[in-house]
Amino acid sequence: MTQPTEDAQRAYRPEMSRLWWLGRRSYVFFVLRELSSIFVAWSVVFLLLLIRAVARGESQYRDFLDWAASPWVVALNVVTLAFLVLHSVTWFNLTPAAAVVKLRGQRVPPAAIAGGAYAGWLVVTALVVALVVTR
């Protein structure tokens, strides 16, 4: 019996483009959703920086506002807002698959679960807008 050659022992690895995920819409949304986690992290860092500036006094707060008003921070936060909306929408659309809810022994329809998440989002948004507008 003959031994296989070294070439025959290597596993077959088809060449794949680095942009393979652009081939299907669902792959694009998957990759964008994963990428959105970076922007979620940035929004947390931004909020923590704001809290720190407020805690350190009016001078630090004004310095933070000046920094936050710079064009690159504003642009970054606009992009962050878009990714946060994408992240939220995709998460709410996945919620029915992640949470099987039963009410009186019957499974709650997926549309009702996602609709409840969107309704909650709308209520919280309305409360935040009301707080900001009334100041």
Note down, in words, how this protein is organized.
With 135 residues, this protein is mostly helical. Helices cover 73% and strands 3% of the residues. The chain is built from five helices and two strands; from the N terminus they run ααααββα. Helix 2 runs antiparallel to helix 3 and helix 2 (25-55) crosses helix 4 (71-98).
Portion of residues within helices:
over 70%
Instruction: Estimate the mean pLDDT confidence.
Output: 90
By DSSP (H or I, 4+ residues per run), the number of helices equals: 5
- Uncertain segments are none
Q: How much β-strand is present in the residues?
A: under 5%
Shape designation: flat
The computed structural class is mainly alpha
Over all CA atoms, what is the radius of gyration?
24 Å
Please specify the SSE layout and strand pairing.
Elements: H1 6-9, H2 25-55, H3 58-68, H4 71-98, E1 102-103, E2 106-107, H5 110-133
